[in-house]
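Two records follow; treat each independently.
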Amino acid sequence: MKNKLIKMSSIAAIVAFGVTGCNQEANTPKTTEAALTAADAIAFVEKVEQEAVALNLEGARAAWIYQNFITDDTSALAAAASKKSTDAYVRFAVEAAKFNQVDVPADVRRKLDKFKQGLVMPAPQDEAKSVELAQIKSQMGAMYGKGSYTTKAGETLSLPQMSAKMATSRDYDELLELWAGWREVSPQMKPLYERQTELGNEGAQNLGFSDVGAMWRSGYDMDPDAFAAELDRIWGQVKPLYDDLHCYVRDELSEQYGADKMPEDGTIPAHLLGNMWAQQWGNIYDLVAPENADPGYDVTKQLAAHNYDEIKMVEQAETFFTSLGFEPLPQTFWDRSLFVKPQDRDVMCHASAWNLDSKDDIRIKMCIQKTGEEFSTIHHELGHNFYQRAYKHQPVTFQGSANDGFHEAIGDTIALSVTPKYLKQIGLIDEIPDESKDIGLLMKMALDKVAFIPFGLLVDQWRWKVFNGEITPEQYNDAWWELRKKYQGVSAPIARGADAFDPGAKYHVPANTPYTRYFLAHIQQFEFHKALCEIAGDKDAIHRCSIYGNKAAGERLNQVLEMGSSQPWQDAYVVLTGKPEMDATAIIDYFEPLHVWLKEKNQGKQCGF
């Protein structure tokens, strides 16, 4: 999963959740503003939206300049713009809560709820506590950002360097040292995280929510508890496929490292899966690849053979969208985007899609490598851009995805159409490999997409229980590993001490970035892909389908994109899939050939955890 920064120049850029939820009347703060009326609410919303456009443009420009010209000065300017926006949105949320008891039109209520839900870690309405919360956030961010580990051999490594080694090393002891070494960065965060939870819960209660977790879950047009139950239902649909993948991978790792390295409880030691957090397993594909898995072509080599440079790669991705009926990208996209890493300055190369002015100033920022993986990534990034442009006619508050998983899901939906069929249509390959070659391609994708799903679920499962008090500070680490075992079948490779705070070793925890969006995106992308393939009338297996060139699929996709977050996400689902609820059976259908193969390979093995 790519942690992309999608710069949406709208309230959605600050408001982390895309849709409204239940008002939680029982927890609504009583207001002394008895005289407030619907007219007051409408006037307030209009004023906020006007201010938001200017704030977002200023903030987006400052962030763009900083990420493309990294200096102390541009960093300071970006930080100042970010603080200005954050302060404003705190004010918007507090003011919006005053209208909790006022009867207002549905669209106005939706906007008011968005203002409240936009604060990921809301500060209490007390200046000293607000300052304390900001300081805690800064402290934890610094601890994580400056984190490093000095190996037994005396080499000091940053997290990217450690991650690169974990991706390629097959030395059990080296992997264990790196895994444990990185987790030395987080114990000092634990008391800070405990205090932050207290302050954030107080802030959430000021806005009418029982705790921060309930506030996060309120952004999904459902009762917060019902939403949590829905996630577990969806996971139950995927679990049989995951369990068979887990069993096969565990057996292959047992052959690689020795059966004595595998715990008796059926779990996989967390450091052996090629990733610092065992969240994606694609880096160990070489250890588990099926025999004869080579599809018979290499996209990277084909790009070179057909003289694709960085710009031509982007132009081809644009052609994918115009083939569906979308208008070409504006000239400003080509003039202002970053496609190639400059030789004369530092830039942030992490691929990202940007919308600066809530209208047509859309861009991507990438240091493109001429590889097959980057070719798919470009299609993904442009998916964000075409989504951003499609909803530009919505009020700024509704310029965002239908729920916070949609943006990533739409980008990945497009990338799922970068199939051999598509590569043949655009002349990159001459022949589509026969179906016997599909197992390797599906395995490679499953190690990233299917393996990620339980991790995408459990991060917020842990936080929600922390926020509501079900998990106490003394239980932070034990509860974390209980969830890792329950959902992933992954275990800590060594005993974890009482002072450990392993959740803090994952960026999104100290950064307070909600994680359910990534779980949703991994479910939704397969649903969307299947639905669009059916609309396109493609009779191939879902994993072989591409909607390239199909105007009917493009028209239906555009209908959903144009909605932004103006309607409940269930309404967007009906437009695209014909149903108002999520359904993970599309993933099962997509990976069916691999699942059949896994079941055959697992016969006679001891599976389960």
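The next record belongs to a different protein.
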Amino acid sequence: MAPLAADTLIDAHAVDYLIVALYFAVVLGIGVVARRQVSDSVDFFLSGRSLPAWVTGLAFVSANLGAVEIMGMSANGAQYGLPSVHYFWIGAIPAMLFLGVVMMPFYYGSKVRSVPEFMRRRFGTGAHLVNALSFALAQLLIAGINLYLLGSIVHALLGWPLWVALIVAAVIVLSYITLGGLSAAIYNEVLQFFVIVAALLPLTLIGLHRVGGWDGLKDKITAAAGVGDAPSAAQQLNSWPGNALSGFSSDWLSVVGIVFGLGFVLSFGYWTTNFVEVQRAMATDSISSARKTPIIGAFPKLFVPFITILPGMIAAVLVTEIAQVKAGQSVAGGASGDGVTYNDALIYLMRDLLPNGLLGLAITGLLAAFMAGMAANISAFNTVLSYDLWQQYVVKDRSDDYYLKVGRLATVAATVIAIFTAGLASNFSNIMTYLQTLFGFFNAPLFATFILGMFWKRMTATAGWVGLVAGTLSAVTIAFLSEDAFGSASLGVIGVSGQGASFLAASTAFVVDVVLSIAVSLVTTPKPVEELRGLVYSETAREDLVDPDEAGYPWYRRTLPLAGIALALVVVLNFAF
């Protein structure tokens, strides 16, 4: 390849720019077409509840396959190796199956427009307001992460200042969401899923060929292990017990931290209560399709580690700059211009391995991933702001057109705010650490409140908001007391490093929330039982939770057989690696 220009990281040619330009044209075209289908707020926020399961299933996994997933997991692969697969096979698939089998019937059957609205029906306005505000804040912060990484790619490609790249990237995402709402986001996410796979699969295969296959990769990792910040070869090449990832020196504590902190609290907290994901399933045409949405998404999710984590592991031995970072050296450059970090692993691997044409496809895949993630955050934010905050607490009883306009204005506002929150992401050398910290703050206590309230009818409205607030504050406290969960702001009082600090914060939030919720419920008055149908498992008739037509479908279209196959596959993969 030709020498790099002085102010760019990636040496793209005209054919690469043409591929990127064609993709942008298609994305905006989808927004224009979707705009014609938006006649009211349900169309804008929930796609008119009309989409089939295969569309929402792919959108479900694509919405999560954003900048953080791809750049963050490649960074994790470069830094930790195989233990990073726990974010998928322990930290995603079981919770996705639980969402489809157990929880989606409650969401879809109650016809709520958001997860916070479900909380309002179960616990009243106190828990609802806390949940809606914390969710809105979380989406602005996470959208900033996606935008920061998207801007970094534009900076690396064109050499523009990062702030200019951030604005340009934000305008593109803003355009198609404002035009077509959730339908535009979902149909673009389906397109983006295929573009992402087409971009990352060749990179993985070429990288494996260059290092001599899987055996060659293991040999090179073993040769470089133990130098500087690099974990031992055994820690990098075996997913269990995952000490380097969890930050615990004890094998037993590491397994407990991964299974309970990541696999239960963080994972179930994210996948079962995060409206970014649940919103895709709620846009389906039936309760059967809603249940199958996360289960269909689980099948491609099983194999995402092979195109995200594996390239990171390859970059750590093939890319000179990433190998130097892993050896504890400071290296000038990087996509942001502030020095090379693990977040740059995928970009540098693309630079070193891909010829022009394939390079353009890979760049397009990254841009697609970043836009999918940011669009998912913003489409969820505008729904919660419009329905759960503005309509509920600020301006009530206005026309549907009024709230549709509020949603579009919220989209613009969220995009502008994300430009500023993008700066926070630049403080972390591994973006997954920042993300897991945020999940510990917002998702872990919400899951505790949600799951306790769904299966224990005695839980009261007061317990709902008290548990949420206390759980969140406890997670924030643990994060600041740990060594590096919150970057340079952490105090280092608790000697847990790596992403184990996030696991510990999330576990603490869950336990504090549950204990306080039980204690408060026992001294306050619960809702009458007759008001809990569709909100509490024991008080909801079975016919309200299933689609009566599903029994007549072939096995491959039924919820439980599909979930069983996905669960069996994830067990096999855990034993294999």
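Discussion point: The two ends are 36 Å apart (CA to CA). How would you locate this feature using only the token line?
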